[in-house]
TrEMBL record, chains A, B:
HTH gntR-type domain boundaries: 4-72
Organism: Rhabdonatronobacter sediminivivens
Gene3D superfamilies per UniProt: Chorismate lyase-like, Winged helix-like DNA-binding domain superfamily/Winged helix DNA-binding domain
Keywords, in A-Z order: DNA-binding, Transcription, Transcription regulation
Protein name: UTRA domain-containing protein
Keyword Transferase among record annotations: no
GO molecular function: DNA binding; DNA-binding transcription factor activity
Pfam families attached to this UniProt entry: GntR, UTRA
SMART domains cross-referenced by the UniProt entry: HTH_GNTR, UTRA
PROSITE patterns assigned: HTH_GNTR
Length: 230, 230
DNA sequence: TAGTGGTCTAGACCACTCA
DNA sequence: GAGTGGTCTAGACCACTAT
């Protein structure tokens, strides 16, 4: 009895052929049935291996058209987006949190568009600072729908809104964006950096089905880098 | 004969239960066999549905431990990283390319570390500008291993190194990082922006097995945003 | 030790799409 | 119309790990 061929080994073999140039860009590769015969496994095993490569952008598959090596592969990079506190702890630093401001204010247009909410509607507006080893790590500028269930009982003095939302709302739909912005005077004071310093900025908006939940801008202290493997 | 249950519909039902709060954070959900019985499908169909949710960070699965809703879900965001020219075309703009400088120089430490190459080794150093509708889009500062096969025949006056590498080298291993940096005087002149303007900066390094290939910094013109759905 | 997810198989039918 | 990938099924065995 042979030990069974795993989909991982089929995938590794496919990668080997891609890297060795046996399967060249633009060319069609053998179909699933043929690879299954050649490698001595079931077609579904080949399917799983190649499906994942296609999802990663390393192959293109079409019914009847077969599987091809793309001429211009679209690489995909995946970032993990943990809770800020856990991110700081993962760096071996001691996380801190300070609420700077909290008020109910009319929702600005940009945030309204991102959440698909009504501009001018009264939203809870928070400004907070996350600290790593007592040094500024990231400023959080957040707008929260006051109709979010359970919001009344939340105390954002001690618990980051980031964490409260993760534990108390149900994800549905969202968008995220990366940009570079210049530090405003207030942000510069919070983050202890020069005014107009370049800040990596992450914008996130979240909805639960039809209901807008929250829009947030995270301004990371100068020098912050977000990294991942390809 | 009933129409078959698809893994997508099982996944949708699981998401519905998560959003409806039927499956709450920290709680264990029914095991695969039970869900399969309940939904009237094969266990492998349930497995595929839940496996993808676990990969997305919405569930945690462990053998014998069962499947749970994580207390602190780690969201994952995936960005597509196309060739710059295709990115510009996808925006409905006309792409342009200008080579600014090309020389062989000793590899700086930062790039050497990123590629795991020897600092000071002679590398090909390119500085180029990508244009969208004749306006500066992105500056490309690239270091290429001169021992990369086929490099002699490449003409970077007319063809972006970005594209040449995609078509002529085989991917193996790489890293990518995002940051915000201030425009140097030279970058400000190229990108037609103020000196010290905040620039979204993407750093990428690529290796093919044991061999370092290229390290590149892309400086996007002010205002550039990178977006994706969650 | 026993329960649960991870995976393989062999066969089947369907959906898309190319010629 | 026919070839290819997409998926479902039923059953099986294995690997991990909680108890």
């Amino acid at each position: 009895m042979r030990s069974p061929i795993t989909w991982q080994s089929v995938q590794a073999e496919a990668l080997r052929r891609l890297r060795a140039g046996l399967w060249t860009p633009g060319a069609r590769i053998p179909d699933e049935a043929e690879l299954a015969r050649e490698l001595g496994c079931a077609r579904s095993t080949v399917n799983r291996a190649l499906r994942e490569l296609a999802a990663a952008g390393l192959l293109e598959r079409r019914r009847k058209g077969g599987t091809r090596v793309p001429l211009t592969p679209v690489r995909k990079a995946t970032f993990e987006i943990p809770i800020i506190r856990l991110d700081i702890e993962a760096r071996g630093q001691c996380p801190g949190y300070r609420l700077i401001r909290q008020a109910t204010e009319p929702l600005p247009k940009a945030e309204a568009r991102a959440m698909r909410a009504d501009p001018g509607a009264p939203f809870l507006h928070l400004l907070a600072l996350h600290l790593a080893d007592d040094r500024p790590f990231c400023a959080e500028d957040r707008w929260i729908n006051p109709e979010t269930p359970g919001l009344d009982g939340a105390d954002f003095e001690t618990l980051s809104a980031n964490e409260w939302l993760v534990g108390n709302t149900l994800f549905s739909d969202g968008a995220i964006g990366f940009a570079a912005t210049a530090a405003t005077p207030e942000l510069a004071a919070l983050l202890d950096c020069a005014p107009d310093a370049p800040l990596l900025t992450i914008t996130r908006s979240t909805r639960a089905g039809p209901r807008p939940i929250t829009a947030v801008r995270l301004f990371y202290a100068p020098g912050h880098r977000l990294e991942t493997r390809l």
